[in-house]
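Supplementary notes for students who missed Thursday's class. We covered one full example, reproduced here. Read the sequence, then the structure, then the short commentary at the end.
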Amino acid sequence: MKKWKKVLCAAIVASAAVCTVSTVMAASVDLNAVYGISSNEREGWPQGPEISCNTGILMEAETGAVLYEKGADELRYPASITKLMTLLVAVENSSLDEEVTFTETGVRDVTPDSGNIGMQLGEVMTMEDCLYAMIIYSANEVSAQIAEHVGGTEQNFIDMMNARAAEIGCTNTHFANASGLPDDSQYTTARDMALIFREGLENETYRKILNTPTYVIPATNKNSEERKLHTHHPLFAEESALYYPGCIGGKSGMTNDAGYTLVTGVEQNGVTYIAVVLRAVDLSQACVDSRQLFDYGFQNFQKTEYKNGSVMLPNTMTTDQIEEKEVDSQDGKMYQFYVSGQLMGTAKVPEPTAAPVPTVSEEEPVEEVDPADEEPLYQEESAAEAGTETQKKTAELTDRIVILLIIMGVMILLLVVLLAALHHKKKKRSNKKHRNKK
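Structure (token representation):
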């Protein structure tokens, strides 16, 4: 069954792989470009912080509202935040109890210059152990082995990643491997990574793995010792000076060209923010920039219930400043809520209910009654009622008499039977005495 599932996945993603070739060839990453904070140009918008990372974005997860953007659609290398896409495709196409056997595909990345947990050829771990090793420890060899196991081949899994990214709405992303190791044809944007992370948070297993700071991999068939993993994400580790309250996890990455990349989720008071910063000079700076974005969001915006949905509003604005647009979607008609020209929330348009049809009844004409006739009429009705009542009582008495007669009949019958039995018994004794005398 799993084999057929993988064959089907291969067929689905094949066309997507072909369609992305021209895009990949044309894409180029300009690492020298400098971008301004475009969200600061919105009318009446709270001015956002000047982060040091090349590009960045702050998105609210439920509504998809973008509160802050700096070069959010500019191409950058993702490094190990690629594994957030690998995790999504893996949890959607496998079960946690599957056994993953490591092949040459996996162990080839067990090198001193590649993050790994030292997996060996033929070593077996569950998919659950593999996913935690990939996210918490950023193990590259585990990422490659997950790809081969789930996709049938590593390349097929990569095609699945690209097809899924396109389905989510990523328009400036291309993956060339499952780990994030350097590759000129692997790129993304802050916006696309926020969309991928947002999609992942809708998956319970995905969210659970992200929200686990410490995990222990038990001994395997090739390793007699357990492996203890602990998060490297400073905003998620409670012992870190950079820890941010409400952090639900994320992923960091680093290569020479990518610099330091960081994706983080924070949830407070029913609001979940996603911050993505790309190409920081070091991890500490990426964390500082992310913290600034979270502070900016929590201090300047509020989530407001509006028309069966939610909308993000700057603290200085009211619902009177919301512009509505009705659109068709797969789920039916939807309201889109815009603030300062930006999509800040949605709600489903309630289906119109049919107006109740009044029941038309013809009133019977009421005859005028002469007051002189009213009393006799009442008396006649009373007499009729009295007769009916007498009939009821007579019927009830008759029923009781019948029941009494039946009971008496049954008692007489029982008495007859009893007397007959006594007579028979007496006769039997008499015959016995007569025989004894003889």
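Commentary. The radius of gyration is 41 Å. The chain has a mean pLDDT of 87. If anything here is unclear, bring it to office hours.
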